[in-house]
Specification:
The chain has 22 helices and 2 strands. The protein is mainly α and 517 residues long. It is globular, with a radius of gyration of 24 Å.
C-alpha cells in the first residue's frame, strides 16, 4: 500500500450509511451549541431588567458602558476559548478536551445566576461579568471541537448536513431564550421590585440544564478515527473504535495493517506545521478566507441579534424603557418579538441549510447568503425613517427576519462548516479556532459600535452592508468541499478505489460487516 493512500478505516467512514450513531453525535454536540446560543443571546433580553433592578435611579437603564460590558463580556471570553481549546484539541485529542469545555460551561451558567455581592449595582454586575467571561471561554472551546468531531465522524455524502444540524441547535437555543424569558417575565409580572431580581437569574441559569444532561454521553464518544490515525498514529485503535461505532467488523490483514502503521501515519515530508512555508503555500489563502468571512459575518449577525431590542425600540416597535410603565411588561413584549423572529426567520434558515448544503454546495450558499443579507440590510437602511411610521413597523420586523433567514441559510452556517473541512487533521481544530476567534473579534467590535453609537443606527446598517460585500469577495478564496472526503480536500492522502456502497451494507440486519483492508 502506498504511503499516500487513504486508510480503509477512513473510507469505511466516508461511505457509511446514515445510522443511529450519526444522530447520537449530532445530539451530543448539538446540546452544547444549544447552551452556547442560549447563553449568548439570552443576556440581551435581561439587560433592561438588570438596569431596572440595580440602576432604577437612571430611569431603569444601566449606564451605556455597563450595558456594553454585560452584552460583550461573554464574546470576549470566546476569543481565548477558541484559540486555546482549538489548539488543545489538536494536541491532546478532541474527546479529552470536549468534556472540560462542557463542565466549565455548566458551572459558569449556574454561577452567572448566583452573582451576588454585599453591595448592589456595580458589584453585582462585576461578579456577573466575571462568570460570563469564563462562560464565554467554554463556549469558544465548544466551537472548534464540535465542528471537528462532527466532520470527522460523518460520511462524505452528508457531512455538510450533519455539521449544519449541530450548528442548527444554535437556532433552538435562541428560540428557547425567548420562550424562557417570556415565561419568566410573565410569572413575575406583578411581583415586587425585589422579586424581579429572580427573572434574570432564572433565565441565565436554565441554559445549563441541557448541556449537563449530555455530559455522560459526551464522555462515552470514542476519539475520532482521523485524529487517531493522523495525529495519535494508532491505526489499530482507529480500526477498533470505528468497528464498534459503525456496527461493522473491519478486518485488516497483517501486511496492510503494518503499512498503515509504518507508512500512512509515519513522519513524512507532509507533516508541516501551522507557521511553516508549506502551510502558507497550501492553506494560507484558505485561512485568510475563513477568518475574514467569519469576521464580517459576526459583525452583522451579533449586532442585529444582541441589539434587536434596542433597534426595535428606536423604530417604535417596542416602547422605550424610559417611558412610564411596568418594565416586566416591556420584557414580555420584547421576548415575544424575539421568539417570533426566531420562529419566522432564524430557524427556517437553519432548516434550509441542513436540507440544501450537500446539494447546492457550501460556496454557493455562502455567496447567496451574503448577497441577500446585503439586499435586506439595504431595505432596512435606505427607507430607515419610513420604517418608524406606525403602519410600516410590521414590515420592518419582517425584513429583519429575512436578514436572519439568509444569515443562517448562508454564511452563519457555512463559516462554521468550511474550517472543519479544508484543513489537515493535525491542524483542523486549531485553524477552526483561529477562524472562529477572529469572527468573535468582529462580533465584539459590532456590539461595541451599536452600544456606543446607538443614536446612529442608520449609519451602522450601511456599515453592515459593507461587511456583507467584503464577505462576498473573500468567499471566492475558498474551495468547494461538497461530496469529497476530508483527505481528498486537504491533500493528506489519495483516495483508494472506493468501497462499494452496496457491499458496505451487507449483513445490515445482523449489524456485522466484514470489510477487507
Amino acid at each position: 500500500m502506498a504511503g499516500n493512500q487513504q486508510p480503509r478505516v477512513l473510507q469505511a467512514l466516508d461511505v457509511a450509511r446514515t445510522q443511529w450513531y450519526h444522530f447520537t453525535a449530532i445530539a451530543i454536540a448539538g446540546m452544547g451549541f444549544f447552551t452556547d446560543a442560549y447563553d449568548l443571546f439570552s443576556i440581551s433580553l435581561v439587560v433592561d431588567v438588570i438596569g431596572h433592578r440595580y440602576y432604577g435611579y437612571r430611569g431603569g437603564r444601566p449606564p451605556r458602558g455597563v450595558s456594553a460590558a454585560i452584552s460583550v463580556i461573554a464574546l470576549c471570553g470566546t476569543v481565548p476559548g477558541q484559540l486555546v481549546f482549538g489548539w488543545l484539541g489538536d494536541k491532546m485529542g478532541r474527546k479529552r478536551i470536549y468534556g472540560y469545555t462542557l463542565i466549565l460551561m455548566v458551572a459558569c451558567s449556574l454561577a452567572s445566576g448566583f452573582s451576588f455581592s454585599k453591595r448592589t449595582g456595580k458589584s453585582v454586575v462585576t461578579v456577573l461579568c466575571f462568570f460570563r467571561f469564563w462562560l464565554g471561554v467554554s463556549i469558544g472551546g465548544d466551537y472548534p471541537l464540535s465542528a471537528t468531531i462532527m466532520s470527522e465522524y460523518a460520511n462524505k455524502r452528508t457531512r455538510g448536513a450533519f455539521i449544519a444540524a449541530v450548528f442548527a441547535m444554535q437556532g433552538f437555543g435562541n428560540l428557547a431564550a425567548g420562550i424562557v424569558g417570556m415565561i419568566a417575565s410573565k410569572s413575575f409580572e406583578k411581583a415586587s421590585p425585589d422579586d424581579i431580581d429572580y427573572i434574570w437569574r432564572i433565565v441565565l441559569m436554565i441554559g445549563a440544564i441541557p448541556a449537563l444532561l449530555t455530559y455522560y454521553w459526551r464522555m462515552q464518544m470514542p476519539e475520532t478515527a482521523r485524529y487517531t490515525v493522523f495525529v495519535a498514529k494508532n491505526a489499530k485503535q482507529a480500526t477498533s473504535d470505528m468497528s464498534r461505532v459503525l456496527g461493522m467488523h473491519i478486518v485488516p490483514n497483517e501486511e496492510e495493517e503494518a503499512a498503515l502503521d509504518d507508512e500512512l501515519v509515519g513522519e513524512g515530508d507532509d507533516q508541516y506545521g501551522l507557521f511553516s512555508t508549506e502551510f502558507r503555500r497550501r492553506h494560507g489563502i484558505h485561512l485568510i478566507g475563513t477568518t475574514v468571512c467569519w469576521f464580517v459575518l459576526d459583525v452583522t449577525f451579533y449586532s442585529l441579534n444582541l441589539f434587536m431590542q434596542d433597534i426595535f425600540t428606536v423604530v417604535g416597535v417596542l416602547p422605550s424603557p424610559d417611558e412610564p410603565g411596568n418594565q416586566v411588561t416591556r420584557m414580555i413584549r420584547a421576548t415575544g418579538l424575539h421568539t417570533a423572529v426566531a420562529l419566522g426567520g432564524t430557524l427556517p434558515g437553519y432548516f434550509f441549510a441542513v436540507a440544501f448544503i450537500d446539494r447546492v454546495g457550501r460556496i454557493k450558499i455562502q455567496l447567496l447568503g451574503f448577497t441577500m443579507m446585503t439586499v435586506f440590510t439595504l431595505c432596512l437602511a435606505i427607507p430607515y425613517d419610513q420604517w418608524q411610521k406606525p403602519k410600516n413597523r410590521v414590515g420592518f420586523v419582517i425584513m429583519y427576519g429575512f436578514t436572519f433567514f439568509f444569515a443562517n441559510f448562508g454564511p452563519n452556517t457555512t463559516t462554521f462548516i468550511l474550517p472543519a473541512e479544508i484543513f489537515p487533521a493535525r491542524l483542523r481544530s486549531t485553524c477552526h479556532g483561529i477562524s472562529g476567534a477572529v469572527g468573535k473579534v468582529g462580533a465584539i467590535l459590532g456590539v461595541l459600535a451599536f452600544s456606543l453609537m446607538d443614536a446612529h443606527f442608520k449609519a451602522l446598517l450601511f456599515v453592515l452592508v459593507g461587511c456583507n460585500l467584503v464577505g462576498i469577495v473573500f468567499t471566492l478564496l475558498l474551495p468547494e468541499t461538497k461530496g469529497k472526503s476530508l483527505e481528498e480536500i486537504t491533500g493528506e492522502t489519495e483516495e483508494l478505489q472506493p468501497i462499494d456502497d452496496k457491499a458496505a451494507v451487507v449483513n445490515a440486519a445482523q449489524g456485522v460487516h466484514a470489510v477487507s483492508i
